[in-house]
Description:
- This protein is of the alpha+beta class.
- It contains 7 helices and 5 strands.
Amino acid sequence: MILGELDITRGDEAWLACDELITAAVKAALETCDQDTNGRACELSILLSDNDQVQELNREYREKDKPTNVLSFPALECEAPGELVLEPGPLHLGDIILAHGVVEVEAREQKITMEDHLTHLILHGVLHLLGYDHIEDEEAEVMESLEIALLKDFGIANPYASEAE
């Protein structure tokens, strides 16, 4: 898998250091696909944004007038989660947009590092690009189990553990 170079210009150290984190998280999420991409390049866009822009996009595309931590816009169709409809050429998976302010506040509230939270949200966003969802309880169970397993490989604790308590 080949990922394009990332241009990260935000001054916050956690954001500046996330190019390696993004590459590792994307690779881990892509490994959940059952398909062989035959060595084709995989592309996706990640925008590290502010709360206002994310709120505007969330309002426009999801009819929710508030900022959220991550938005994903898949470019490929999926027959089922992890089963992409492959077209010839490079695989453009889609776009992920992260809201700096929301991510920062959530990391602080959850008493976790910014890097760990970003890793989780990037994995979460890529899984959305691969057709996973959490609207229905059954879908959420599948997606969250996958996230927990992937995060464990990064040495990151289950982000959903506090919800079960």
